[in-house]
Amino acid sequence: MQLLGVYDEYLVEPLAQVLISLGVKRGMVVYGTDKLDEISLSAPTKVCEMKDGWFKSYVITPEDFGFEHCRKSDLKGGTPQENAQITRDILSGMKGHKRNAVLMNAGASLYIGGKAESMQEGIHLAAELIDSGKAMETLQKLIEVSNRPEVTA
Description:
Layout lengths: L1 E4 L6 H10 L4 E7 L12 E7 L2 E7 L19 H12 L5 H16 L6 H13 L2 H13 L7
Helix pairs in contact: 3-4
């Protein structure tokens, strides 16, 4: 299973075909038409969805999922420390365009991963995982594990 963002629209369908030939059973190749290599909240997104050897292309917008369109600058990150804080804020329940962008991309991942029947359902599941604190708990565990000293033999 694969969610792959590309930097140019002309790559969407060819890369989907490559992934199918490499054995990917389920996936999406996405291109935000505002030149984002992910599902965009600031422009339509071209999608090529693959499933069991077939693929179909379509375009989605934030409004299709009940989100407000935003400016690309509303999604801008910063330094690694600022991005880490943005992540913590989103996982702590902060609302806004950045959270909605996370929900769109996480929702697509949950959908292609078989955890949701549709991207809309995946978005709802992602919101539940954030709002319940489970996503923050997982981040805390990851931080803890990644900061453990290496054990040498």
